[in-house]
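Exercise 7.
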Amino acid sequence: MASDNADNPPAPASRVPAELPPLTGSKLAIGTIALSLATFMNVLDTSIANVSIPAIAGDLGVSPDQGTWVITSFGVANAISLPLTGWLTRRFGQVKLFIASVVLFVIASFLCGLAPSLSSLIVFRVIQGAVAGPMIPLSQSILLTSYPKSRAGTALAMWAMTTLVAPVVGPLLGGWITDNISWPWIFYINIPVGIGAALATWAIYHKRETPTARVPVDTVGLGLLVIWVGSMQIMLDQGKDLDWFNSSTIVALACIAVVAFAIFLVWELTEEHPIVDLTLFGRRNFWVSTVALLMGYGLYFGNVVLLPLWLQQYMGYTATLAGMVLAPVGLLAMVFTPYIGRIVHRVDPRILVTISFAIFAVVFFMRANFTTEASLWTLLVPTLIQGAGAATFFIPLLTLTLSGLPPERIPNASGLSNFARITAGSFGTSITTTLWERRASLHHAQLVQHLTPNDPGAAQAFANLHASGLANEQSYALLNRLVDSQAFMLSADEIFYASGIIFIAMIALVWLARPQLGAAGGAAASGAH
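Solution. The predicted structure, written as tokens, is:
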């Protein structure tokens, strides 16, 4: 589809590689499995440690609050390295960079398992997060070169299935390993997976390397990137614990992030060899799909965090049972994702994203009616339906993101897109959990107004509790717990409802894109869109 020059800024001068022929037969199957396993391992590590923090903190002799740096350190390093994927690919080649990323990730995982102290574990998690950055975007771009253009949607489907299943499996697997073996094994399990993926990838792809060039290092841009991304991630991770902008630390981090980001934008847009290619945002499809991905994934991930928290803290669910409530999201996702991959190059991706956002909205409206009496089946049905929305979420948005891009720009575009996804997860988690607690405090204050001796219902409840042998303090504590349960349920329902409204509003955003039909994702040839 034709568009004006503003939508199609010229690509930076670079050596354009000859188009590689697609793989076939066993090479295609093995290559797809190897790349998908590496992606699965990477995404798994973003969530597998979450449920193990109490065990890690106890074993290393630190508080659980200090233990959360095990998660924060990985997220900060990962977020910083993701946008560097394009520059690193131009410098070293995508196959070598991918294999190096996998091998270094395995080594860092081994060191994490051996860590004798929290400080050493955090150092190794920083290394693990940093080397993991290029892995996911490169798995996308290498997969796209493995399939013919007509099956590029299938390639993206294989990638998307790993990113859908891994976040759900992570907490379940992490909890089981911690309970039944020991926490270091949440890192050790990466070793056989990573070695297998690296060997298979080298065997299949070492003769399919992309051209390299000695691109100057944009040290100023890199330094600014580290400063603003690091400040923002630490602010998001620590904000709730430090009471956000009532804390001078959070205010300082926010100011540093904003100032460094502003300088970073100016520098990168005027630098001859920028560390991050921000000109991609001049393409309509790229910025529309990236904003939609950022907002949609932020809402999705925030609610993925909220639901098990509510179930475990106020519904009496164990970590394993709460994980089982989330697990069915993978069922319909795995059923529909391959089909979406096959049709995405023939169907307007805006239609598919609209279906996805509509399904998510329905799911959140269903959850907005949850009560403290909700049965397991009531909780499972929306999660099951959500899988269909997830299947039509990632692939069409990725198709729009990479639409019309020449092969040499795909790693950069994919890196920026995944950076948006990772950052959205941090924003979604922080905003959702903060709003949940603040709205619950408001509901708690409103509900306790009725717990007075003059209220007939409260008086009857106190009388029943006294009759059962509870003292006044015990009665008040029990009723306070019941009020807490109701307050946090009402707060969760409000967040679910608001999430549904936002997903409906976001449908209009998607239709600002101008998709290129007939060629899926980044496999499409460069041209107008």
